[in-house]
Amino acid sequence: MPFKIIASQCTQCGACEFECPSVAIEFKGETYVIDPDKCTECKEAFDTQQCVSVCPVPKTCVPA
Ligand code: SF4
Ligand code: SF4
Questions:
Q1: N or C: which end of the chain has fewer CB within 10 A?
Q2: Quick one: which ligand is closest to 46's CA?
């Protein structure tokens, strides 16, 4: 299951964009979004989802 960003909670800090090993996160319109076709859940790259790890706002990067 790919991850998604809860737009209403995202502060647009941009931290997640550079940590994603799949380059699945980009700024689109007015917020950051995760491309579900690119998100690999960080499998094989990391033990934990990097977007979840770096996001300063709890429960903003969540399973879609
Ligand atoms: S779970 Fe991993 S691959 Fe998916 S968007 Fe977050 S950092 Fe990128
Ligand atoms: S790290 Fe969290 S708050 Fe920052 S841009 Fe990504 S989803 Fe938004």
A1: N
A2: 1
DSSP state of 38: T
Cα angle 33, 31, 46 (rounded to 5 degrees) comes to 40
Which helix or strand (DSSP H or E) is residue 19 part of?
helix 15-19
Looking from the CA of residue 14, the nearest atom of ligand 2 is: 5
According to the model, what pLDDT value does residue 53 have?
A: 98
In this structure, are residues 42 and 49 in contact, taking their beta carbons and an 8 Å threshold? yes
pTM: 0.95
Looking at the structure of the chain, the number of domains it has is 1
CATH of the domain at 19: 3.30.70.20
Tokens describing residue 44 = 């094989």
Q: What is the pLDDT of residues 29-41, one digit of tens each?
A: 989 999 999 999 9
